[in-house]
Design goal:
Blueprint: E1 2-3, E2 6-7, H1 11-31, H2 47-82, H3 85-105, H4 112-136, H5 140-163
Helix pairs in contact: 1-5, 2-3, 2-4, 2-5, 3-4, 4-5
């Protein structure tokens, strides 16, 4: 049974894939931390509110918006124009990933170099999340991947601030 982007018949597989890919993405980020996706700055929020937003709310909302709605809409738009399924899907993935990257681009306030790296990191992350969502026909894996990766980024950022 499928319920709002969740195929309940394969939830265990989706969870495992999300966790596994999060571990891979975190390890890649540790090797090249400049290629990250950025987390929002919430200076007025308490730490638990920041963590809840970054680790839970943002990944859920962003995956529903970008991989759940935007990916489907752009695929349909390109299908009407191009008339080829795989070309339409590829174009939709690129457009959604560019939009996702621009959305996250503003999370970085540093230099042009760090902002450009953030754009590339967010774009790569989005392409992977789109492919997973299409492959699994579910948003569970991308949400888990996004949530765990944001949790890692939050802990890394928080530890840098505390150790400072």
């Amino acid at each position: 049974m499928t319920l709002i982007g969740v195929n309940t018949n394969k939830i265990g597989e989706d969870l495992s894939i999300g966790v596994g890919l999060a571990v891979v993405f975190i390890l890649l980020n540790m090797m090249s931390p400049i290629a990250s996706i950025g987390i929002p700055r919430l200076p007025m929020a308490a730490e638990w509110e920041q963590f809840g937003t970054v680790a839970l709310l943002a990944p859920l909302a962003e995956e529903v918006i970008f991989r759940g709605v935007a990916l489907a809409v752009f695929t349909l738009i390109f299908m009407a124009i191009v008339k080829d399924k795989w070309t339409s899907i590829a174009l939709a993935i690129v457009v959604v990933s560019i939009i996702f990257s621009v959305f996250h681009y503003t999370a970085y306030g540093g230099s042009f170099t760090s902002m450009s790296a953030a754009f590339v990191g967010a774009f790569s992350f989005s392409v992977l999340a789109c492919i997973i969502a299409l492959w699994r026909k579910s948003l569970v894996s991308p949400i888990i991947l996004h949530s765990l990766f944001n949790t890692y980024l939050y802990i890394r950022l928080y530890s840098l601030i505390m150790l400072g």
